[in-house]
Specification:
Chain A is an alpha/beta fold and about 130 residues long. Chain A contains six helices and four strands; from the N terminus they run βαβαβααβαα. In chain B, helix 1 packs antiparallel against helix 3, helix 5 packs antiparallel against helix 6 and helix 8 runs antiparallel to helix 9. Chain B is globular, with a radius of gyration of 16 Å. In chain B, about 55% of the residues are buried. Classes of the chains: A alpha/beta (about 130), B mainly alpha (about 210). Chains A and B meet through helix 3 of A and helix 3, helix 5 and helix 6 of B.
């Protein structure tokens, strides 16, 4: 099996989420599992736990899923979404403390090489290190 | 005093209606120090709660609180969804484990406050909803059984929300503003106050 870690991009703006996913696919390749979501339950700026849960399941990989977020509510809602997953999936999903665009590209690049979830997360979070 | 199902139903209804009515005020507060969506987010969440009012009030209290929590989590669309949602989910969970209303109200409320603190990785003093929830919890602990407990909670909530104005935010969106967050009441503290005061008004039969 050549499973790779899945990448989920969660922005307040669907346009930013989609644009980030487009960049990941162009720069890293279309074999990587990328899902994205953005917008509140009414479609305005914000995030939706239900959409995040769907995105995680879309990008699902037995090796796990790394989530990249933009601002506060996206992080809180992503953490909530992780807790609402089936129990056997919860421990295989991480929310990365990283800038959304650079973090997604770096995480996807690392994932494409077959790295573990911990390695993918570490590469993304290095961007936030001082 | 025991909590009757019809009392609970009107309590949830009044609380939801008051939050919805306060949406413009919450949005104005949030435009000052946040991203301006707290009012519309809370309105969307509590409209969803109102839409399920009959189903919610037909459930046992623990399940009803969990349904309210899950509804807020799924519909609010901002950080306040998981924060308020976690409060109700944890309070419901406490009721599922040998806690009873009204005797264990302080403990049930404490479970909710603890969940908010964990979810937001925050504590009182950081200009958040916890700056209302924590003082109210203290009042519940110290003044339980007093004949005017409802009045005391109302006063505590109002004073606590007002005290967030001079605070500098260190958590949440308002923390980006640093010193400029001083001088504005925190929107989350205000929405917590609105909710608690609506519950008080409902319990006193004034709404």
């Amino acid at each position: 099996m050549n499973d790779t870690v899945g990448i989920v991009i969660v922005s307040h703006s669907k346009d930013i989420a989609k644009g980030t996913a487009d960049m990941v696919r162009q720069m890293v390749g279309s074999e990587i599992k990328v899902a994205f979501c953005g917008g509140n339950p009414d479609g305005g700026l914000g995030t939706s736990v239900a959409l995040i849960v769907d995105a995680i399941n879309d990008a699902w990989s037995p090796k796990g899923v790394a989530i990249l977020v933009d601002l506060g509510g996206a992080e809180t809602n992503s953490e909530m979404a992780v807790e609402m997953l089936d129990p056997e999936r919860r421990d295989l999903v991480v929310v990365c403390n990283a800038p959304i665009v650079e973090g997604a590209v770096m995480a996807a690049t690392e994932a494409a090489g077959g790295s573990s979830l911990a390695e993918v997360r570490a590469v993304a979070e290095e961007l936030s290190a001082d | 005093m025991s909590l009757q199902p019809e009392t609970f139903k009107s309590l949830v209804k009044v609380a939801a209606e008051q939050v919805i009515a306060s949406a413009p005020e919450l949005t104005t507060l949030d435009q000052a120090i946040g991203d301006g969506d707290h009012g519309t987010n809370m309105k969307r969440g509590f409209e969803a709660v109102l839409g399920k009012l009959d189903a919610i009030s037909a459930q046992p209290f623990d399940e009803a609180l969990k349904t309210i929590g899950k509804t807020l989590v799924m519909t609010v669309g901002g950080a306040s969804g998981p924060l308020y949602g976690s409060f109700f989910l944890a309070a419901g969970e406490a009721l599922s484990h040998d806690k009873h209303l009204p005797d264990d109200l302080a403990e049930v409320f404490a479970s909710g406050v603890d969940a908010v603190s964990k979810r937001g990785r925050s504590h009182a003093g950081e200009k958040t909803m916890l700056d209302v929830l924590v003082p109210v919890l203290e009042t519940l602990k110290t003044d339980a059984g007093q004949p005017d407990i409802v009045e005391r909670i109302r006063t505590t909530a109002a004073e606590a929300a007002a005290r967030t104005a001079p605070m500098q935010a260190t958590k949440g969106r308002a923390s980006f503003l640093g010193a400029r967050s001083v001088g504005h009441v925190d929107p989350g503290a205000r929405s917590s106050c609105v909710l608690l005061q609506a519950v008080c008004a409902s319990l006193e039969g004034r709404a």
